[in-house]
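Lecture 7 notes. Example A: sequence first, then its structure tokens.
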Amino acid sequence: MARSGWPHPRTDNLNALIATYVGPPRLTDHHGSTDWHLHFRGDNVSTTTQLAALLCVGTAFHLAARGIDRLGECAADGCPRIYADTSRNGRQRYCSPACGNRMAVRRYRQQDADR
């Protein structure tokens, strides 16, 4: 896997989001339950902030484990979505099977029209 140089726009953007939404990690069991887990946010924050912290940390873990280039923009015409590449070989091009299928049909129809 090719390594990207530092600084990288993706890490700069993600680090800015982490600085905004994520607090220091802490271990919690929610007052006596047996389910210990980590929180990456402070107590008594809004649901929006909780979701932002969860998404930031999850994205950071994914990119650290899989590689910074595993975050991509959908290659389908007109699709503005971004996605986390979870494919084995790191060659995912579309955000969903629907976008991939739509582009395959478009390519097929174009080949048929070119004949």
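Example B, a different protein, same format:
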Amino acid sequence: MSVVTVSETASALPRAWSSTVLARVGTASLRVLRMDALPVEEERHDEAEVLLVLDGRLELSVGGRELTVGPGEMYVVGADVPHAVRPGSRGTLVIVDRD
């Protein structure tokens, strides 16, 4: 595998909130996406997921609690926990989750 410039990969995506898989490790996928200021509806997953902000900020609502994840910070959303992206998120987000 070659070196991947994560921020360039995110910038090249056709639209915000669409992701691409950078790598697979065991049963986990490492995906990157470009955030924009628009909200994303609430969702929940059968497995936990890691949200790592490379640059910008991620505005989240998790289980009814609002929080901000800044550059270089990560948040682990537990399995079956409802979460949504609030307006104002922007930048590059890496997600680690199961296939």
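Note on Example B: The radius of gyration is 13 Å. Helices lie at 6-11.
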